[in-house]
């Protein structure tokens, strides 16, 4: 079984749809903790480390073979919990970051300022010292639309900001909630999002574990 740690309930149907489309036999457990992102934005990601560890431990107690953190802001905090849990903990944006790091001119777009740093750091980590040119783009006004429940306005704002990017070889959508904006862009630059690659990687890990071998 794969447990998914979310900081917004909007991610649940997104990952359910991806599972149904690509890995229909994968058993998933959704954990939604909106307070983690709220506190991480106010006090920093490390401030929620104990709460993240408790949430992940609860998932393991319920039988999770692996955990996927779908929030980029607290992804590194979740990954750091793995040694104490005894199961793999993955962050949804790592496969996306690895793909982005194969390019030189990279633009990271986010609706939350606090997500830009963790995502940029992850891409640099995946680049492993290669010469890359990384810029960040805060999509002004987008998160206010997201919090107001205006999903269409949110995605439109993100897509418009992405289409305005110049001199880039790849554009990274740093938050899982931004993924559908990729389909609304008209730019010729590749636009990467995290949910699909992240779930595939996590499902592969579950299928390789003794308990989860029949789940994916």
Largest sheet: 4 strands, parallel
- Fraction of residues in H or I helices: 40-55%
Helix count equals 10
Strand content: 15-25%
What shape does the CA trace take? Answer: globular
Order of helices and strands: EHEHHEHHEHEHEHHEEH
How would you explain this protein's 3D organization?
By secondary structure, the protein is α/β, with parallel strands linked by helices. The chain has helices at residues 11-22, 34-43, 49-61, 75-79, 82-85, 94-100, 113-127, 142-147, 151-163, 195-208, and strands at 2-6, 28-32, 66-69, 89-91, 105-110, 133-138, 170-173, 191-192. Helix 6 (94-100) packs across helix 7 (113-127). Residues 212-216 have low confidence and may be disordered.
SSE topology:
Blueprint: E1 2-6, H1 11-22, E2 28-32, H2 34-43, H3 49-61, E3 66-69, H4 75-79, H5 82-85, E4 89-91, H6 94-100, E5 105-110, H7 113-127, E6 133-138, H8 142-147, H9 151-163, E7 170-173, E8 191-192, H10 195-208
Parallel strand pairs: 1-2, 1-3, 3-4, 5-6, 5-7, 7-8
Helix pairs in contact: 1-10, 6-7
Provide the descriptors you would attach to this structure in a database record.
216 residues, alpha/beta, 4-stranded parallel beta sheet, 46% helix, globular
């Amino acid at each position: 079984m794969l447990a998914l740690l979310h900081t917004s309930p909007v991610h649940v149907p997104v990952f359910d749809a991806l599972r149904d489309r690509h890995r229909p036999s994968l058993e998933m457990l959704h954990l939604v903790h909106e307070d983690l992102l709220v506190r991480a934005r106010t006090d920093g990601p490390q401030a929620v480390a104990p709460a993240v560890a408790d949430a992940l431990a609860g998932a393991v107690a319920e039988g999770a073979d692996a955990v996927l953190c779908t929030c980029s802001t607290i992804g590194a905090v979740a990954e750091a919990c793995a040694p104490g849990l005894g199961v793999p903990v993955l962050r949804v944006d790592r496969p996306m970051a690895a793909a982005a790091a194969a390019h030189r001119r990279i633009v990271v777009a986010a609706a939350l300022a606090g997500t830009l740093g963790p995502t940029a750091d992850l891409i640099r980590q995946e680049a492993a010292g290669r010469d890359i040119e990384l810029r960040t783009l805060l999509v002004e006004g987008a998160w206010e639309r997201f919090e107001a429940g205006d999903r269409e306005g949110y995605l439109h704002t993100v897509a418009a900001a992405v289409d305005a990017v110049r001199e880039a070889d790849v554009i990274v959508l740093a938050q899982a909630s931004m993924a559908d904006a990729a389909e609304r862009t008209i730019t010729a630059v590749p636009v990467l999002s995290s949910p699909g690659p992240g779930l595939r990687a996590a499902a592969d890990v579950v299928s390789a574990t003794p308990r989860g071998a029949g789940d994916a």
